[in-house]
Design a protein that fits this description.
Blueprint: E1 5-9, E2 30-34, E3 37-41, H1 52-61, E4 69-77, E5 80-90, E6 96-100, H2 103-107, E7 111-112, E8 115-117, E9 123-136, E10 141-153, E11 156-164, H3 173-187, E12 198-208, E13 214-221, H4 225-235, E14 245-246, E15 249-250, E16 253-264, E17 267-270
Parallel strand pairs: 2-4
Antiparallel strand pairs: 1-16, 2-3, 4-5, 5-6, 5-8, 7-8, 9-10, 10-11, 12-13, 12-16, 14-15, 16-17
Length: about 270
């Protein structure tokens, strides 16, 4: 497992692919209209509905074709949050709009003036804005230089809050790996390795603070006590491993990797993966 390298970013990620809720296969954000402007919101207000699975099933029953998904449009009118449209989409992750689903078929007597009051929503609706700094494919999560929260209580809009994430930056995994290996090549005291021929494998896990500097190192698979202490010393000197902010707060970057050191025929070295 030499060179195995994983970077784990902990984000709140929504993904609902149960049989009952397969409708949320669309790879786009819901729309929110506020003061005449249309913005994207990351988490659909449908997820906080007390009977969301029944709603999802009812929406699916009204699809015009198989393999559809849906995205919704919401609007704040007179400080009240309304569902105004459910769009049916098809194609790769919902790339093609093919129509709208009749709200009366899903919400029945809850529909007034062609819209549904979202009384069930007590949450903040996060909207990405500003520059897209980087995108995480697995979580379908983008990190933006600015975000705005729209606060809703029992369907009533109260206020907004803007967050500055502009300090965020991200290194590709291979660059993070090179930064770690360069530190080990230049700073690790190889004289601490045993004089006899041996191979030492150590699995380490570390993370960085809000300034991108490593401030936490754990040894998950131990070498010797001396080797472990030296690894902690060297890895703790690394900075610039990346900063990720969501809602203006730092989200730690976690990195785990297997490292190997060897003494062979009197030569001591860190075995840098090829």
């Amino acid at each position: 497992m030499v060179g195995l390298f994983h970077a784990f970013l902990f984000f709140i990620v929504f993904a609902s692919y149960t049989k009952e809720a397969k409708a949320f296969g669309c790879r786009h954000y819901d729309n929110l209209i506020y003061n005449g402007d249309t913005v994207k919101i990351i988490f659909s207000p449908f997820f906080s509905h007390p009977k969301k699975l029944e709603l999802f099933k009812s929406i699916e029953e009204n699809y015009t074709t198989d393999n559809s998904c849906f995205l919704s449009e919401w609007e704040i009118i007179d400080n009240r949050l309304y569902l105004i449209k459910i769009n049916e989409l098809q194609g790769f992750h919902g790339s093609q709009k093919i129509g709208s689903i009749n709200l009366d078929l899903v919400f029945k007597d809850k529909v007034k003036d062609g819209r549904v009051f979202a009384y069930w929503v007590t949450d903040s609706l996060l909207s990405p804005s500003g520059e897209l700094l980087h995108y995480l494919e697995l979580s379908r999560q983008g990190i933006y230089s600015q975000e705005t929260d729209y606060f809703i209580t029992n369907g009533l809009f109260t206020h907004t809050k803007v967050y500055d994430n502009s300090a965020s930056y991200w290194f590709p995994i291979h660059k993070m790996q090179d930064k770690l290996f360069d530190a080990l090549d230049s700073k690790f005291d190889l004289s601490l390795l045993p004089d006899t021929d041996t191979l030492i494998r150590v699995f380490v896990h570390f993370s960085g603070n809000e300034f991108g500097k490593v401030d936490s190192v754990r040894i998950l698979r131990e070498g010797t006590e001396i080797i472990n202490a030296e690894l902690i010393r060297v890895i703790s000197t690394i900075d610039g491993i990346g900063i990720n902010k969501i809602r203006g707060k730092n989200q730690r970057i976690y990195i785990s990797i297997m490292l190997q050191f060897e003494t062979l025929n009197g030569i001591k070295r860190f075995k840098r993966p090829k």
